[in-house]
Amino acid sequence: MNAINLKEKFEELKKKFFENKNDEVIRECKNILKKDKIDVFYNLLCLAYNNLGDSNKAIEVMNEALKHNPKNPDFYNNIGLSYSNLYKYRKAEDFYNKGLKINQNNLEILNNLGNLKKNLYKSEEAVQIFKKILSIQTDAISVIYNLALLYSQMGEYEESKELLKRILTMNSELTMADRMISQTTKYDANHPHFLDMKKKLLDMKLNDNSLIHLHYALGKAYNDQKKFKEAFENYKKANDFSKKLSKYNFESDKRKFTSIKYKFNSLGNIKLNKNSRKFLFIIGLPRSGTSLTEQILSSHENVFGGGELPYMDKIFDNYINSKENLDKSDLLKCEKDYIEFTSNLDNSNKVITDKAPLNFFYVGFILKFLPNSKFVNLVRNPIDNCWSMYKNCFPTKVNFTDDLSDLVKYYKEYQDLMNFWKKIFPEHIYDLQYESLVTNTKLEVKKLLKFCSLDWDERCLKHYENKRAIKTISFNQARRPVYNTSVKSYAGFENYLTVLKDLA
Questions:
Q1: Is 431 within 8 Å of 444 (Cβ atoms)?
Q2: 475 pLDDT band (50/70/90 cuts)?
């Protein structure tokens, strides 16, 4: 194939890649690479494997590519990205740095390295990397957004807002920036940003995704003004658009709840008995107070706050759910994988918190391979809890929150599963009532620390002084001194939430 034909073929395959036709891309790239060892086809092949979730295969492709051309920085970037997809952050960082030795101003590598540092809670390093990119390319919108998000997680709200406003001057359709601004803004009827958003809704033809973010932001603005009808209408439109895109069906989640109990009962008494590092899993439904609880615990001198770690789903799928019969070697793999992953974040002897709320699915399985674990289950007034989920947009979409009827059904399944776990593991699970935590904080924190086998530490009452980045949508609330205005937060919306009364 001559150079012109290869160029045309690459453009054709790139188009297929963006259309998510990954199998075709893989097959055709392999055929070309048998005859012509051309760098761009290695890159495309690697990206297609990553798209399919096969990052190990992507790494194999890049290792082969490096034999062909060890001086191509894009190869190091792609192999680093593949390791990052596997949560092997140290290896990822090593390959990013190798790529930067070849080209220190490679913007893609720098951006990926910045995101890696953010994931590892090395926030100041991430800030400097993002700033370096913007000194080279001032209009890199994705980098401006990454830096704005990082500033908000660090509590630097004004710096974040300035960057978000800059994004909107470059492209006013990027309404994710509007939504983020709304999270740290108190609105009245004449607030300039509120007026801008209303005008945008009237004047611009936006796609469904942009409308989701804009309606969430307008819902927040009307809520601040206690215009409950207008607020609810906008929250509902945001959720309706979101459900339209996700095509969520509760039956799929119902099957998961059922299968979890069945799978656990089929495993028998197999478990690991040896001691391992201590972990605290903070679980419950989103918006139940998990971020505040982790911020309190992570202020303790002997605790490292890991945040919402995305790893337990992977372990469950790789080693537990896919196997008919589990043995101790499988449990040892689970233990090794999880400890190796968390050591990327902190390699000391501190207790690590994992605040992924939906880890409530895996309580019994976790105790089989991490027997020293304890679980803090946040319990909040169910109407408050469901309303808070409904009116907020989650970074990683939680699809069951888009419909009030789905929320009622999901909440009942969650309660049923937690009752199942508590009957089997009563000493490992502690129910922490959110309303008690915010109204009688010192007493509740003392009881919480006792359950966690932690000595009293006064810093836990000054969690708002903790400078760690908070990577959830509660970044603003969890950084403030304890307040109780979230109790009965649904006040004013009662007429719109009748479906939730089943949970009262």
A1: no
A2: low
Q: Domain 1-104, what architecture?
A: Alpha Horseshoe (1.25)
> Taking CA 394 as the corner, what is the angle to CA 358 and CA 290, rounded to the nearest 5 degrees?
45
Question: Six-digit token pair at 104?
Answer: 């220190």
Whole-number percent of the chain with pLDDT over 90: 82
Question: Is the model's pLDDT at 470 over the cut of 70?
Answer: no
d(CA 207, CA 213): 11
Extents of the domains making up the chain: 1-104, 255-382+391-503
**First CA to last CA across the chain, in angstroms?**
69
Residue 206: what are its φ and ψ, rounded to 5°? Answer: -105, 150
pLDDT higher at 343 or 221: 221
Report the C-alpha dihedral over residues 201, 207, 209, 214, rounded to 10 degrees. -10
Q: What is the mean pLDDT of residues 63-80?
A: 96
Q: Report the C-alpha gap between 222 and 496 in whole angstroms.
A: 15
Task: State whether residue 313 is helix, strand or coil.
Answer: helix
Q: Which tens digit of pLDDT belongs to each residue from 134-146?
A: 999 999 999 999 9
Between CA 155 and CA 489 the distance in angstroms is 23
4 — pLDDT class (breaks 50, 70, 90): low
User: What's the confidence (pLDDT) of residue 240?
Assistant: 96
Q: Is residue 243 scored above 90 in pLDDT?
A: yes
Residue range 255-382+391-503 forms a domain whose CATH class is alpha beta
Nearest Cα to Cα of residue 438 among 366, 489, 502: 489
Q: What are phi and psi of 414, to 5 degrees?
A: -60, -45
Q: How far apart are CA 372 and CA 383, in angstroms?
A: 33
CATH topology identical between 1-104 and 255-382+391-503: no
- Cα separation, 138 vs 130, in Å, equals 11
